[in-house]
Design a protein that fits this description.
Strand order of the largest sheet of chain A: 1-2
Order of helices and strands of chain A: HHEEHHHHHHHHHHHHHHHHHHHHHHHH
Radius of gyration of chain A: 30 Å
Order of helices and strands of chain B: HHH
Number of helices of chain B: 3
Radius of gyration of chain B: 17 Å
Oligomer: heterodimer
Distance between the termini of chain A: 103 Å
Largest interface: A-B, 12 and 14 residues
Strand content of chain B: under 5%
Helix content of chain B: over 70%
Number of domains of chain A: 2
Shape of chain B: elongated
Number of domains of chain B: 1
């Protein structure tokens, strides 16, 4: 098959899976839908692999292929085609998305097995993968925006999957609203670029970038608006508040959407739009600085959060901060490399966390966990591998990818050096919060649930409660059903986690500094027009220092966490008491929710009330609507008053009228 | 004989009928007053026919009589129906169809 066919098949399978599951949910046995969904995504992954081989068979210059299915609309200069752009970047993203999604589907087959919404879940999940693949394979802005919006919708559906949970539906709405803010940014940014280049097609728009002078107002505005879109999807400051709340969704959803795939869409967008960002360095600088701010802010919050999944969520934000900082500083291959390794170990961490949460019967609070090491050896092993990779301990995957970003950012010189150094600070924090979570969940004295599990009995809560609020909820649409599934007892969860663990350990091999250069070479055709792609390279000394410092920071962070949360466990409490103000500030998440509430929500709510009370009630209802209706009402009241029902009155009117008429004619005639 | 006298009598009878309709409440009397008005019209028609010297007015007067007979039949029928349903024989009381 040709490359184009593979490209369309990659999209077709998840779409087919969605439709098939949605239409046959009542016909086929429910258990089958999980496997159907997994199979659809797996076939999509195989097609992506096929596309990869086809792409590699081509010459260096022919590795950017546009395939058009049909013209959706072609009018007044707007040419909206249903077209795919198949180049190393999009195929790479398709591979990551479909590959990780396959494993997450496989995990969900067991994890969600006793959920009443099992088939609905897989239909949504397939729909999400379809949207995401549409986003990464799109060949023009039109298609990109469609995929972008679809992903937001799928995210909303999956976050509020347990729709009886008020916290879940609220989180879904929050995510959707913030994502729509991003959609608007993307559409407006597209407008600015389209205005000058006159083409929605990526490749032609890239050629048109020379139209712009460097840092021209239009282009900077367009790129900043694209950044708004990217930041909303990728949960970067200040549009990040939806991501921690999105942890209300089922754990596989957190793993799929809010760690491995959807939140990386922003990174992909910036990498894809690199010709514009290189022509508008001002916008790229803003992105790099905000990415750096995000990675520090999220890491600092991760230090104090006590919700197991939210710790990982903040770490996701933080890691995506690294990627955004990387791609905005022209470290494209490094950023995408980190995207891939992060997908592996973050999905792994979420799956392990899901297993622990199942063992705790839905409880997510780290304060109530402890000592699961012996009860859940497999989960523990996966968590350790994920934790080592996330902290950046050599030779795990995260070590190479994170340090490559940082050394390339420092190689940009000037003030980028500051960003790189702050990135190293962030990597120390990463190691501390990651291992704080692992030590608290798996070390120390086993809690009651861990004890029971050691004796072969899985703990079940007497009644299910919402982990966020403690409200009692029914298991029909609450925590995945009345039964829980842990990785130790389910083969599909085990297989998915084991494969991801292998990826988390060995994915770094692709891009060892000065040794292998697989990803960089592979992605080269997509970045052939980049000013920095080939030239930006850290010196040997910088590379080695970066690697050494990174490894040292990671190990010392882990050691510090071990000291604080295993050896000297009175210390964290004492530190917290001494730094109560800082702790409170971090626990309230830097007051971002309150800030957005005060700056955006309240003024808009006030404006809405003003519009309702003054504009709607007085102007619209009072004058525009009230005037004509009042006139009609007064007229009809007068006419109605005449209709008294007195026969003699009618007769009198008649007589008076006829007499009046007669007199008139008489006078007129004489 | 001059035509004015006929017309004066006709107008007088017409006004008596109209005044009766306006002041009386009994539908039977109203019907009688209506007859007065119609016959006042007839008188005027016949007088004009005489004055003009052709028969058109007389034919028209005959048509009016037929219509008057029909109207009396319908009106009396209504009054009998009202009486049978034990409703008050008073047009001021019968005002349920008011707007």
């Amino acid at each position: 098959m040709s490359l184009q066919t593979y490209g369309w098949l990659v999209l077709l399978f998840p779409l087919g899976g969605t439709v098939l599951i949605a239409l046959t949910w009542s016909v086929l046995p429910w258990k089958l839908h999980g496997y159907l969904g997994t199979l659809a995504i797996f076939l999509s992954f195989l097609c992506a692999v096929g596309a990869l081989f086809e792409l590699q068979d081509r010459g260096e210059e022919e590795r950017q292929v546009v395939t058009v299915a049909w013209d959706y609309a072609n009018t007044v200069g707007v040419d909206a085609q249903l077209s795919l752009l198949l180049d190393p970047l999009s195929v790479f993203m398709a591979l990551v998305v479909s590959g990780i999604s396959t494993l997450i589907h496989l995990y969900s087959v067991s994890y969600m097995a006793s959920d009443r919404g099992y088939t609905r879940f897989f239909a949504y999940l397939n729909y999400f993968v379809f949207s995401m693949l549409l986003l990464v394979l799109a060949g023009n802005f039109f298609f990109l925006i469609v995929g972008w919006a679809f992903v937001g919708a799928a995210s909303y559906l999956l976050i509020s999957f347990w729709y009886r949970r008020t916290t879940a539906t609220a989180a879904g709405i929050k995510a959707f609203v913030i994502n729509v803010v991003g959609d608007v940014g993307l559409v407006l940014g597209t407008y600015f670029i389209f205005k000058r280049t006159g083409s929605l097609d990526f490749l032609r728009a890239f050629e048109g970038v020379q139209e712009f002078s460097r840092n021209e107002g239009d282009l900077v505005a367009g790129c900043l608006l694209l950044l708004v879109g990217a930041f909303a999807k990728s949960a970067q400051v200040p549009l990040h508040t939806w991501l921690p709340d999105a942890m209300e969704g089922p754990t596989p959803v957190s793993a799929l959407i809010h760690a491995a795939t959807m939140v990386t869409a922003g990174v992909y967008l910036i990498a894809r739009m690199h010709p514009f960002f290189e022509q508008a360095p001002a916008a790229a600088d803003v992105g790099a600085i905000l990415g750096c701010a995000t990675l520090l802010i999220a890491a600092s919050i991760g230090l104090v959060v006590t919700d197991l999944k939210r710790v990982i969520a903040y770490s996701t934000m933080s890691q995506i901060g690294y990627m955004v900082m990387g791609v905005c500083s022209a470290a494209y291959a490094a950023g995408l490399f980190h995207l891939m390794t992060h997908a592996f170990f973050k999905a792994l961490l979420f799956m392990a966390a899901g297993s622990v949460i199942a063992a705790m019967a839905g409880e997510q609070n780290l304060d109530r966990m402890g000592g699961f090491r012996r009860a859940m050896p497999f989960t523990f092993g996966c968590m350790v591998i994920g934790g080592l990779a996330l902290a950046g301990v050599p030779p795990f995957a995260g070590f190479f990818s994170k340090d490559e970003i940082l050394s390339l950012v420092i190689a940009r010189e000037d003030w980028h050096v500051v960003l790189g150094v702050l990135g190293f600070v962030g990597s120390l924090l990463t190691a501390i919060y990651t291992w704080r979570m692992i030590f608290r969940a798996f070390f120390n004295e086993p809690v009651e649930q861990a004890h029971e599990l050691e004796h072969g009995h899985l703990y079940h809560a007497p009644e299910h409660t919402n982990p966020a609020t403690g409200e009692v909820e029914d298991t029909d649409v609450g925590f995945p059903g009345p039964d829980h599934h842990i990785a130790e007892r389910e083969w599909s969860m085990k297989v998915a986690m084991a494969l991801l663990a292998v990826g988390a350990v060995f994915a770094g091999v692709l891009q060892i500094p000065k040794v292998t250069d697989v990803l960089h070479t592979f992605l080269e055709p997509s970045f052939h027009d980049s000013r920095y792609y080939e030239s930006l390279e850290p010196s040997d000394g910088l590379t080695w220092i970066g690697l050494a410092v990174g490894a040292l920071l990671a190990l010392s962070g882990i050691a510090l966490a071990y000291r604080l949360w295993v050896q000297d466990r009175a210390r964290p409490g004492a530190i917290r008491a001494r730094l109560a103000a800082v702790h409170g500030f971090l626990v309230r998440k830097w007051y971002f929710d309150e800030l957005i509430d005060a700056v955006v929500v309240r003024p808009f709510a006030w404006f809405g009330r003003f519009a309702r009370d003054v504009f709607e009630r007085v102007v619209v209802n009072g004058i525009v609507v009230g005037g004509p209706t009042g006139a009609v009402r007064a007229g009809s009241a007068a006419v109605r008053a005449v209709q008294s029902g007195f026969l003699r009155y009618y007769a009198a009117l008649l007589l008076v009228g006829v007499t009046g008429l007669g007199l008139y004619f008489l006078i007129a005639a004489s | 004989m001059n035509i004015e006298w006929y017309l004066v009598v006709s107008a007088l009878v017409f006004c008596i009928g109209a005044g009766g309709i306006l002041v009386r409440r009994n539908p039977l009397v109203i019907l009688l007053c209506l007859e007065l008005m119609l016959n006042a019209g007839n008188l005027a028609l016949v007088a004009f026919a005489r004055a003009h010297g052709n028969q058109d007015g007389q034919i028209f007067a005959l048509v009016v009589m037929v219509v008057a007979a029909c109207e009396v039949a319908v009106g009396l029928g209504l009054i009998v129906a009202i009486y049978r349903r034990r409703l008050p024989i008073d047009v001021d009381e019968l005002r349920e169809l008011q707007g």
